[in-house]
Structures are given as C-alpha cells and as structure tokens.
Amino acid sequence: MAASTLGVQRALGKSVIPSLVVVLGATGTGKSKLAIEIGKRLKGEIISADSMQVYEGLNIITNKVTAEEQAQCPHHMISFVDPLVKGLYATHFIWFVSLMQHIEDLHRQKKLPVIVGGTNYYIESILWDVLVDTGENRLENAQSGSFISKVELEKLGGLELHKRLNDVDPEMAAMLHPNDVRKIARSLQVYQETGVKHSCLLQKQKEQDGADGLGGPLRFSNPCIFWLHSDLDALDERLDKRVDEMLSLGLVKELKDFHQRFNEKKIQDNSQDYQHGIFQSIGFKEFHEYLTAGRDISQEDHEKLKIKGIEALKQVTRRYARKQNKWVRNRFLKRPGSNVPPVYGLDVTDVSLWEQTVLNPALDILDSLCKGEQPSVEPIKIEGEGLRNKRSHHMCELCDKVIIGDLEWTAHIKSKSHLHHVRKKRKAEETSEHQQGVGSDVPSAAKYQKQAGSTSYTPGSDSDTLEPGTHRNNTRDNEKEISEES
Ligand SMILES: [Zn+2]
C-alpha cells in the first residue's frame, strides 16, 4: 500500500485530482474513520457536511469526531455556531459560503478536501449548483431587519403562506402542497430577498450547461465519491450498539446539561421548537419527556421515561439510516443526466475485514484516479426510472384535496377514501338520473380515472433541490428531514 500512496502524493503535488473526495454513507457506517485514513495518507483535510455538527455542544449525540481523531487530521466546519443563534448564521447558505471558502483554501494549498456527510442536501449543494444564492442583498436586508424571517413566516401557517406565495410566484405555489410550510416559507423568503421568483431562479439553474433535471451543473470536475454501505441487519445491529456506546460515553449527562443550559428556559417561555437549529438533532427531542419530567414523579417512573427515550432514539436512528441510503440511491445512483460523477461502493458489513473491503479498495481507486487511470473497480450504477414528477399539482375535486406528485396522485386515485367518494357520487348521480330521467354522458368514476392518466408535466419541477422527498399527503410518516433551514 505504501507504493500506491506515494503515487497518489506525487500526483497531488502537481494538481489536485480528484478535486475532492466525498464519503457518503448512513450513520454508523464509519465514514469518519475512512476519511481520516484518506486524509492522513493523501495530504487531505476533512470538512464535515453535517448540519448538526456545526453547533457547539451535544458532541456525543451528533457524533462529532473526538479530539484524538481531530489530532490525526485537521477537521473543519465543526462546533462553530452557538446553539442559541437564530436564523441567519445557522442557515444552509451561510454554511455553504464558509464551506466553499475552506475548499478553495485547501485547493490553493494543494491539499485534498475530504468531505464527510452528513446531511444529504448539504452534500448535494457542494457537488451541484443547486443552492439558490439570494445574493449580497440578503445580508443587508437581514441585518436591517427589513423582512420577515423564515421562522416568523412559518408561524403564519400553510394556508396563509400558500396564498401569499400564489400571489407572487404562482408557478412555485402550484408545485407545493399547502402543508409544506417550510418549503413555501423558503420560496417566499427567496422572493422577498431578491425580488425574483424562486421558480425563475430554479429554472435558470437548470438551463445552464451541464445541468440536469434536478439542478445545475457540477461545481468541481472529477470528484471521487465513496458510498459506505452495509447489509441492513448488520447495520441495525451496529446502530443499536452505537446508541449503547453513546450511553456509556455519558449521553444522558450531555443531554441533561444541554437541556439545562439552553432548553429549559425556552420551555418555560413556551418558545421551544424542536424544528430548528440543533434542537432538532436526532436524539434530543426523543428525551423531552425524560428531561422535562417534574420532581413529583417517582424514581421508577423517571427511569421508565429514560428507557423510553433510549428506545425512541434507537428507532429514529434506524429510520434515519434508511433515509440516508434511500437518498444516495435516488439522488446519486439513479440521478439522470450526464453530470453524475461515479460513485464507488465500499462494503462495510464485516468490520473485521475493514482494511480489505474498505480502506484498501478506496486507496486503490484514488491511486488510479490520481494517475489519470480508470480504477479497476466499476462504480455503482442503478438504472433510474427516469424523471418522475414529484412536484406536479393535482386537484381532486371529488375529495376536495390537493395532491402533489405523480406517485402520490396515482396512490390517491386508488385509495379507499377516493373510491368511497367515487361510489358516493355515482350513487347520487344515479338517484338524480332516476328522479330527472336524464342520462349522464360520462360516468363519474371513468372521468376521474381519466384525469389520473393525463397529469401534466411541469418542466423543472422535480425538486426545489435543497432536499429530496415528496410531501406525502395521507401518510403517517410526516417526519421532516432534519435541518431544512436554508
Ligand atoms: Zn379523491
């Protein structure tokens, strides 16, 4: 391995190829470990792309690298935002500007940026031009307080927001469900800060050379992307074990301290909000009941609340890991278009084989890329299903419901509640036909089925690109991707 490392370093001396390394993978797959090894060997420095690690505090629950790990290789973008900071500096945009600065600095020093993520749409915004830059006006306006902040906007509620957006940017409004409060607020925010419709900015992005249906072109040529994946059973087991490790590292004490320092007062003031900033971090809100329990409950009941929190944390961690993997499949492996960099899969299922299955293949791939050769390992590619419109607007007049997304619409017209309305309407029509003796020219069921097949495609409406995922109207799983505060 020493020889190949040398080859890589020599190549890096000339120019940095690959332009950057991105280590993707669900929580618990050992991304940091690989990143540190790559960084140490290839004159690299690590940049965290995790929206929760930017905040000070909650080091255990947000899984920050330890001081020991930081000593092995420099890390950036960790613990630099005050947990109580509101809005502006905790935004995706500010994070992004700072991150780009780090990448530039490293490139200037002929060092290799190794990005470890983290938060899906943060990584996406590093690779592709998908982030809507609201320009210099943004800071000026924000500081003078001349616009309503996104958090304040969100408080107005979906219907009111949707109405406002419809007035200024009907194209965008048509792509968003009134319940999608965060996205609607974001679009309104873009409009008030730039005076330009969000839908126009997204459209412009997609009209650039090298753009695809999901956003603008790649920002850096030749990025090298690794995806750490694992058998699901092995991953689940590891995730549970990791929660137990967190507990032995002092998770409960960390949560209690943090709660006392930052959260207690908010709860007293009735201003707690687990939807923004570090407070939405996985593993914090799960302990809300435990942390806020009064002194009047018994020790035993208190202990029960703690166990309940731990179980909830395990569950939510598993769910989050699945979500992260799904995102890699949808936004990388199935991403249509020609501007998708190769993604190299590394199997982390068996930890005891880590060097053979993870580290050595990764170094070999980097070695080949540095020499300008094709790596002997093939990148992963899954055939995409093509662009499905996740943002198309459907109105079911029968149910008086707005449905966003083709897939959701198809599900709706097959749903029990819709079919119930169809039958009800048919019955009502039959009754009135009998009464009036007039035949109906189009049977109502057929009429609504027909509508389902003729959904219109709105160009460029597949995403607002900050984070993937459709708004599902009738599902229980209304859980939000963490930290969408851009
Ligand atoms: Zn319906």
Strand content: 5-15%
Tally the beta strands.
8
Distance N terminus to C terminus? 42 Å
Q: Please give the radius of gyration in angstroms.
A: 25 Å
Largest sheet: 6 strands, parallel
Q: Based on CA inertia axes, which overall geometry fits?
A: globular
Unreliable sequence segments: 1-14, 437-486
Number of helices: 19
Order of helices and strands: HEHEHEHEHHHHHHHEHHHHEHEEHHH
Biased composition (Basic and acidic residues): 474-486
EC number: 2.5.1.75
Catalytic activity: adenosine(37) in tRNA + dimethylallyl diphosphate = N(6)-dimethylallyladenosine(37) in tRNA + diphosphate
Enzyme class: transferase
Walk me through the structure.
The structure is a single chain. The strands form two sheets. A six-stranded parallel β-sheet has the order 3-2-4-1-5-6, sandwiched between helices. Strands 7-8 form a two-stranded antiparallel sheet. Among the domains are: 85 residues, no CATH class; 61 residues, no CATH class. 50% of the residues lie in helices and 8% in strands. The longest helix is centred in the middle third of the chain and has 35 residues. The protein is of the alpha/beta class. It has 19 helices and eight strands. Bound molecules: zinc ion (ZN). Zinc ion (ZN) binds next to helix 18. The site of zinc ion (ZN) has 7 residues, from helix 18. One of its GO terms (biological process) is tRNA modification. One of its GO terms (cellular component) is mitochondrion.
